[in-house]
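User: quick one, fold this
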Amino acid sequence: MTDNPYPSGPSDPYPSGPYPGGAYPSGPYPGGPYPGGPYPGGYPPPPMPYGNYYPSAPKNGLGVAALVVAIIALLSSFSIVGGVLLGTVAVILGFIARSRVKSGEATNGGVAMAGLILGVISIIAGLAFIAIWVGLFKQIGAGDYFDCMQQAGQNRRAVQQCSEEFRQSMSENFSINPTPAR
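Assistant:
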């Protein structure tokens, strides 16, 4: 066996070149240091799509967050925190996400718009439930009951009288007779 890994002869795909030792100036292979050209594997690297940088991934997180918060707000719109507060957060996130879509940073305009619209709906539903709760609170006389309890203080007889008046008000307004728990 010879020490030369590139022997000259008919089976040699790379015959020895015109230089001493059979090597070419750029390396042991014709055309470059690697088979097939100057790049490993024979293929050049892909060109950059937008000049000298690759485009960044779209920032779709705020649109998705607006939709998720709006759904939670809509499902919990019977409370002040759920409807009004979370709905407001969803609307703010929706507006920010829509501005990112308009500037080309995000690609989920529909999701952001859905979050914004559901946020507005949950705010409206939350306000409607607040009006219902306030009306119900006034109708059953809960305000009078709390005032009576505050005036009663630690007097057990006055506290009992306030409770009896509240039960009487409930039975008159709603035709129910609550049974006291003892």
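User: anything notable?
Assistant: The CA atoms of residues 64 and 111 lie 6 Å apart.
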